[in-house]
Design a protein that fits this description.
The chain is mainly alpha-helical and 235 residues long. Strands 1-2 form a two-stranded antiparallel sheet. It is elongated. The model has no long low-confidence stretch (mean pLDDT 95).
């Protein structure tokens, strides 16, 4: 696929969490209103990606505890992402942003057309005969599809948030999501906020995708962790 580099000043300001620039553009009216429907990513991701999704992703990613000196960078970017979201609410009436991660290819561990058996790397019946519970297998699939609705329902019904799937090299769901968050923070999406000047002229769909992948895994980790803590508190 031909590489497309983003040049729109509002899109770049949002990618780099530049609150003052976003405010200036919104107040001057010198911006393309179409980016609030799609930043020109539908041809790559299959669904429109409005600009506000990016700020919401950064809010999810950066609202965590990080070690110094990265923590100094994340704090500023997190605060700016929140202020940008407030601007979007004030100037554009955009609020309560829900990102359909299950429809965004870079956010997923499994392709949309993959069957449960392909994701699990085997038949459910075989795993069940070896001691696995169907509900935990279904949770593994839901997590890899970033299907938050299904994952929450399964967790509510007793699925194990710490489930280890034998086909995943005995890696549990926290290892899966948490490992990706660490990778994105240290080796991929995190570079965008560490070195914005370096990336300013080279933001393409891969960089945008890395932000969504980090945010999806961070949000899923938090969902799993909330049920792990509730389970521990109950014991």
């Amino acid at each position: 696929m031909e590489r497309y580099f983003f040049k729109d000043p509002l899109v770049l300001a949002v990618v780099f969490n530049e609150y003052d620039k976003v405010k200036e553009l919104l107040e001057s009216g010198a911006y393309n209103d179409g980016v609030f429907y799609d930043i020109d990513m539908e041809k790559y991701f299959g669904i429109p990606i409005p600009i506000q999704y990016i700020s919401r992703c950064w809010e999810i990613c950066l609202g965590q505890d990080f070690r110094e000196p990265f923590a100094q960078i994340t704090r500023l970017n997190y605060e700016n992402a929140q202020k940008i979201l407030s601007l979007f609410k004030e100037k554009k009436g955009i609020d309560a942003i829900e990102i359909p991660f299950s429809k965004i290819p870079p956010a997923l561990w499994a392709r949309e057309d993959e069957s449960d058996e392909e994701i699990l790397e085997g038949k459910k019946s075989d795993f069940i005969s070896n001691g696995a519970r169907k509900i935990d297998l279904d949770l593994n699939v839901a997590v890899k599809r970033m299907d938050f609705k299904a994952a929450k329902e399964l967790l509510e019904n007793g699925a194990n948030p710490c489930y280890k799937h034998c086909a995943d090299c005995d890696e549990d769901l926290f290892d899966l999501c948490g490992g990706e968050c660490s990778y994105q923070a240290g080796c991929q999406a995190g570079f965008l906020i560490k070195s914005p000047d370096y990336f300013r002229n080279s933001i393409d769909y891969d960089e945008i995708g890395s932000i969504f992948r980090w945010a999806a895994n961070e949000a899923m980790y938090e969902l799993l962790d909330s049920y792990r803590k509730a389970k521990e508190a109950a014991n």
